[in-house]
């Protein structure tokens, strides 16, 4: 089982934040390497705890896309929230988040907002953020046969 993790540097606090959408969890490290190491440990522990408790293992419902605007590539993270019936697009670096009831609409809104932001910055001679951003899949140490299914013991008489 693997999960999308987005790593985002923050110059103001000189650290790296890792976000795991499937678990709605933020992890902070002093460096990218430290954030990756802590993320792996916490992800393994969290999945093990869910398995031990017989709880549902969350699906990774996040996806990513790279948008090209003004000759620059911008990663975008998309996630869905089934409970609230909406989709979210997050544009790291700019720290912009938009929501919509459909994936198609949230993608459209993300493109519009990003284009407006890039155009505004270009017209005002304001640099685009150069924060560190990395999106990758992190695998768990556990083998999960089926996700989102409670673990049960079947007794046959």
List the helices and strands and how they pair.
Blueprint: E1 2-10, E2 15-20, E3 25-29, H1 32-53, E4 63-69, E5 72-81, E6 86-91, E7 96-100, H2 103-123, E8 133-139
Antiparallel strand pairs: 1-2, 1-8, 2-3, 4-5, 5-6, 6-7
Describe the structure.
This is HicB-like antitoxin of toxin-antitoxin system domain-containing protein. It comes from Paenibacillus urinalis. Keywords: Plasmid. The protein has 157 residues and is an alpha+beta fold. The protein has one domain. It has helices at residues 32-53, 103-123, and strands spanning 2-10, 15-20, 25-29, 63-69, 72-81, 86-91, 96-100, 133-139. The chain has a four-stranded antiparallel sheet, covered by helices on one side. It has a four-stranded antiparallel sheet with strand order 4-5-6-7, with helices on one face. A hairpin with a 4-residue loop joins strand 1 and strand 2. The protein is flat and about 55 Å long.
Summed up:
The protein is α+β, with helices and mostly antiparallel strands and 157 residues long. The chain has helices at residues 32-53, 103-123; strands at residues 2-10, 15-20, 25-29, 63-69, 72-81, 86-91, 96-100, 133-139.
């Amino acid at each position: 089982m693997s999960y999308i993790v987005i790593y985002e540097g923050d110059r103001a606090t000189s650290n790296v934040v890792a976000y795991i959408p499937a678990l709605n969890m933020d992890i902070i490290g002093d460096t990218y390497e430290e954030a990756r190491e802590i993320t792996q440990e916490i992800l393994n522990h969290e999945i093990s705890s869910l398995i031990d408790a017989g709880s549902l293992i969350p699906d990774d419902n996040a996806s990513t896309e790279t948008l090209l605007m003004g000759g620059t590539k911008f990663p975008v993270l998309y996630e869905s929230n089934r409970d609230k019936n909406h989709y979210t697009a997050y544009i790291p670096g700019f720290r912009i988040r938009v929501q919509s009831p459909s994936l198609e609409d949230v993608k459209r809104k993300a493109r519009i907002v990003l284009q407006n932001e890039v155009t505004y910055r270009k017209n005002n001679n304001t640099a685009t953020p150069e924060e560190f951003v990395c999106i990758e899949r992190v695998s768990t140490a556990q083998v999960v046969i089926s996700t989102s299914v409670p673990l049960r013991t079947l007794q046959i008489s």
